Amino acid sequence: MNIGFFDSGIGGLTVLREALALLPNENYLYYADTDNTPYGTKTKEEVKGLAFRAVEFLMSHSMKALVIACNAATSASVEDLRRKYDIPIIGMEPAVKPAVAKSLNGGKRVLVLSTALTLREVKFQDLVARVDTEHIVDMLPAPKLVELAERFVFDGPEVEDYLRELLPWDRINCYGTIVLGCTHFPFFRQVLSRMLPDSIDIIDGNRGTVNHLYDVLKSKNLLNNASEKGRILFFRSGAPIEDPAVLEKYNRLLRP
Length: 256
Ligand code: DGL
Fold this sequence. Notes:
The protein is of the alpha/beta class. It contains 11 helices and 10 strands. The protein binds D-glutamic acid.
């Protein structure tokens, strides 16, 4: 039985990388909807339709759990997907709660970087209303990071120029934590750490999501007890990825 991971593109690999560290013996399916990336600039209805199509494909491959490794697809579809399928479905959510706890202590603000869809959706707005009692959370869509990541450009002048334009440098020291609220963004952790003051923590929700996956599988007795490492099958918008050069690129991003 497989654990399916799904994203608009390569972003979900940052979540799968964490899963491989915690659950190396599981068998995984990774589905990148690269024909339709990006999701974050589309409407909720469009993304919901794409998510249903991707998940239907994955469900035909004997699945025991699904990780929607995409914040945008989670906010557009997780509840409807859970109503339709009865396997555990784990979604992503920007790590606002731990960020608020950390930053409040230091009297600092939180900046959530994500996509326009995630930031305007009810799921995120509700989360902020619940945890941001002191009104210290700001948010910023960063769509070009998705596009750069899909071109495997994770560092260098193009990324630096964009970040120089995007981030509020004149008040950057107000922030104690930056939340990476899109699964494509951890690929930019290195360049962000280099450009940002050392006092700013950069956090994502990947570890939390994978811990949750572990707890759910354990509680349902679904963990794979095999002693050998599992395998990963990759798909791109409904077709297996067979090109060795592409497979190598994907596998490289999964190495710790
Ligand atoms: N990686 C996705 C997320 O976490 C989607 C990015 C996109 O396709 O715009 O939201």
